[in-house]
């Protein structure tokens, strides 16, 4: 918990002669403390700018004929002058959390970040430094995309004179083992980045106790500012048999390659996995609620992608919404939709969006407002309804892209610790999304 060193308001009465002495003493303070007294001509406010650039203390001086009254006020968002374990405590070491933490440390703040132990599949008890993009998103997905592309290159190579004594075979277990080795390497790099920046990494699940305190597996840490950077997790609709379904986390770490898979969703995540498993010779069925895939994208792109994927063997089931998943005695799965049933699946995967991972963090208990889908409500500077608590990335659900989380983390560090209030700027990202 925070240790308060003084009361919220410090009042001292100083004689007129002492006032001049106080002013002289201030001028003699060592320059390396960056402390300078500033008096305004009207209110005679004396402001001390002390060593940490994010910590400003103002002394209001009111005068009478015989004495001067000095009052200390806080300008750091806290109600009193307290000692905290850290200037910033970040919950979540994904792209945004790591960026905000290390940049804040570079600006002179004392910073800690907590993250769950590493695992390839996230859960209430597992996560890993690096977050979604590095461990169960962009990076592992690209590795699987690269693997799937070879099948098409082998096929095309015949036209360039290549001949094979036997058809190339793919070993799924080798791919997954090497993918996981790469993830271990990358999470190690992210840990080194934090260490080199002077950020303290604490392994465990963080929960907010009060506006300035975080509980990590039973140990309390106090901080002037708390940052929520917990990302989001895949969402599975609540239908009968949903416990048999997998999501993108699972699809990137399956013990065996799917023989026949139903992928539910029409966004780019669903299409990426359909392309991956199709390239690795799985029988892929894509179930889409709409008439076309990629809602919101250019019409020609939507039509062209669906056409090309169909030519490569992906079977589209348009205007079909899932209603139930049934499991047979032999372990195979049947998907029931509004148009009928399709059976014989080894896997059924949902790619139907993500939800902010904000449950069981103690947010609502301390007064942080959430939206209906669990996102943290923030202002233009990423501040929540509690002045000392901030949020960014997918947890705030503004524009959920890795480069956006990085940009938001940089802006927050500048706002809090570089005396440079900075609003996240989404203009170029919105332009990119419009013309992707």
SSE blueprint:
Elements: E1 3-4, E2 10-15, H1 16-28, E3 37-38, E4 45-49, E5 56-63, E6 67-74, E7 82-83, E8 86-91, H2 95-106, E9 111-115, H3 131-136, H4 138-157, H5 172-196, E10 200-203, E11 206-210, E12 213-216, E13 219-228, E14 232-234, H6 248-251, E15 260-264, H7 268-279, E16 283-288, H8 299-311, E17 315-318, E18 322-327, E19 333-337, E20 340-345, E21 347-350, E22 354-356, E23 389-391, H9 402-417, H10 427-435
Parallel strand pairs: 8-9, 8-13, 9-10, 13-23, 15-16, 15-21, 16-17
Antiparallel strand pairs: 1-7, 2-6, 3-4, 4-5, 5-6, 11-12, 12-13, 14-22, 18-19, 19-20
Helix pairs in contact: 2-9, 4-5, 4-7
Structural class: alpha/beta
Can you count the helices? 10
What can be said about the biggest beta sheet? 7 strands, mixed
Query: Which residues sit in consecutive blocks of at least 5 with pLDDT less than 50?
Result: 5-19, 21-80
Which outline best applies?
A: elongated
User: First CA to last CA: what distance?
Assistant: 48 Å
């Amino acid at each position: 918990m925070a240790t308060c060193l003084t009361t919220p308001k410090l009042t001292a009465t100083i004689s007129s002669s002492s006032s001049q002495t106080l002013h002289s003493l201030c001028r003699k303070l060592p320059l390396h403390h960056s402390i300078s007294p500033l008096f305004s001509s009207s209110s005679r406010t004396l402001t001390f700018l002390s060593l940490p650039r994010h910590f400003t203390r103002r002394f209001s001086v009111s005068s009478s004929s015989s004495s001067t009254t000095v009052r200390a006020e806080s300008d750091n968002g806290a109600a009193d002058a307290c000692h905290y374990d850290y200037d910033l405590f970040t919950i979540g070491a994904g792209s945004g959390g790591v960026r905000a933490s290390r940049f804040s440390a570079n600006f002179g703040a004392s910073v800690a970040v907590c993250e769950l132990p590493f695992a390839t599949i996230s859960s209430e008890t597992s996560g890993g430094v690096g977050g979604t993009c590095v461990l169960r998103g962009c990076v592992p997905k690209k590795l699987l995309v690269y693997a799937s592309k070879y099948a098409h290159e082998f096929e095309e190579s015949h036209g360039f004179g290549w001949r094979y004594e036997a058809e190339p075979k793919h070993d799924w277990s080798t791919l997954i083992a090497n993918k996981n080795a790469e993830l271990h390497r990358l999470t190690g790099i992210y840990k080194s980045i934090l260490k080199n920046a002077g950020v303290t990494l604490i392994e465990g699940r963080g929960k907010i106790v009060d506006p300035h305190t975080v509980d990590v597996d039973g140990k309390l840490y106090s901080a002037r500012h708390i940052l929520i950077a917990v990302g989001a997790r895949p969402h599975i609709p609540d239908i009968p048999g949903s416990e048999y379904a997998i999501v993108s986390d699972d699809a990137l770490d399956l013990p065996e390659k799917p023989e026949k898979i139903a992928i539910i969703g029409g966004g780019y995540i669903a299409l990426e996995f359909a392309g991956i498993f199709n390239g690795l010779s799985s029988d892929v069925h894509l179930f889409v609620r709409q008439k076309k895939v990629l809602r919101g994208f250019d019409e020609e792109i939507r039509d062209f992608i669906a056409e090309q994927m169909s030519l490569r063997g992906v079977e589209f089931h348009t205007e079909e919404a899932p209603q139930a998943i049934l499991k047979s005695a032999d372990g195979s799965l049947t998907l029931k939709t509004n148009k009928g049933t399709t059976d014989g699946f080894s896997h059924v995967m949902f790619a139907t969006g993500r939800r902010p991972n904000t449950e069981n963090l103690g947010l609502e208990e301390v007064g942080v407002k959430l939206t209906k889908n669990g996102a943290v409500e923030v202002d233009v500077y990423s501040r929540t309804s509690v002045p000392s608590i901030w949020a960014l990335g997918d947890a705030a659900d503004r524009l959920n892209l890795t480069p956006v989380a990085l940009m938001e983390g940089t802006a927050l560090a500048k706002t809090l610790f570089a005396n440079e209030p900075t609003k996240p700027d989404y203009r170029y990202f919105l332009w990119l999304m419009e013309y992707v």
